[in-house]
Amino acid sequence: MSQAARIMLVEDEEIIEIIIRDLLAAEGFQVTVCNNGVAAWDRLRNDPRYDLVLLDRGLPLMDGIELLSRIKAEPALARIPVIIQTARGDKMSIQEGLSQGAYYYLTKPIQPEILLAVINAALQQSQELQEMLENVSRVEQSLTFIRDCSFCFRSLEEGRLVANYLAKACPEPERVIQGLQELLINAVEHGNLGISYAEKGELLLAGTWQEEIQRRLALPEFASRVVAVHFQRQPDKLVFTIRDQGQGFDAKDFLDFSPERVFDLHGRGIAMARMMSFDYLEYQGNGNTVLAIVNGVSKPCELVS
């Protein structure tokens, strides 16, 4: 980010507050501390320009989950990534936090290197989403009249451009764009380039994910691989078909938020796309083709069935 990110730390334990505040300040972040949920909510409503919220679950006056729910229900705040930190690591608690829209779930005691890696990943994803939304808003309104089109691309940047373009063809581009981007990124990195789930976690932790993507794109065995995207506007729905040229994978474990993977630095993109961006999502065949549907579309022009 071009300027220091603003982070709100909501923590009522003084020692933990001091440790995390000093850690974040040493990394150049601007840190605002609130010691209870009510104070944090009041501050956020008066000043929504925070880049991230680091939220303790067990707070006085207002529970952390209630504060998270309020943040995600408020349009001016919903874009802010929220990372929950808590001593409660049971599956039910984790599932509740993720289903309410938490970006990540950390259990105490906090490991500094993991905390910083998660924060940086959340900030990068949030910045990319904001840039995508700004790009979408500049695309011609005539894109809403597209009925049928196809694209092929190789790189992550090309995939983001395709996501920007196709999102504008939807009546709610801000709903579709992040999920669409997640599916296209998955098709490049895990599909065409063969980066395994474990490898991506190691690359993210080491901060070398982007470098490895570029390295593999230049290798002869991957040079001809493309992701094909087909878009079709039907009378009652929008249909996206995305196909990569990889070996495929078993997607069933990634269609829902999994407590088993909650402490990983990635692995939530497909579930997020299915639950938040599309009305239907299915991986077909050997897993290298995904069908994503948006239902009940208001048609910009009359279509013939």
Q: What does this 3D model show about the protein?
A:
This protein is α/β, with parallel strands linked by helices and 305 residues long. Helix 5 packs across helix 6, helix 6 runs antiparallel to helix 7 and helix 7 packs antiparallel against helix 10. It has 2 domains: 120 residues, 3-Layer(aba) Sandwich (Rossmann fold); 157 residues, Histidine kinase-like ATPase, C-terminal domain (Heat Shock Protein 90, 2-Layer Sandwich), CATH 3.30.565. The protein has 10 helices and 10 strands. Strand 3, helix 3 and strand 4 form a beta-alpha-beta unit. The longest helix has 27 residues. Strands 2-1-3-4-5 form a 5-stranded parallel sheet, sandwiched between helices. It has a 5-stranded antiparallel sheet with strand order 6-7-8-10-9, with helices on one face.
**Average residue pLDDT:** 86
- Helices and strands, in N-to-C order? EHEHEHEHEHEHHHHEEHEE
The radius of gyration is: 20 Å
What percent of residues are in strands? 15-25%
CATH-defined architecture of the largest domain: 2-Layer Sandwich
Q: What topology, given as strand order, has the largest sheet?
A: 2-1-3-4-5
Task: Based on Cα principal axes, name the global outline.
Answer: globular
Q: What number of domains?
A: 2
Q: Assign the CATH class of the largest domain.
A: Alpha Beta
Provide the structure class.
alpha/beta
Helix content: 40-55%
CATH homologous superfamily designation of the largest domain:
Histidine kinase-like ATPase, C-terminal domain
Largest sheet: 5 strands, parallel
Number of helices: 10
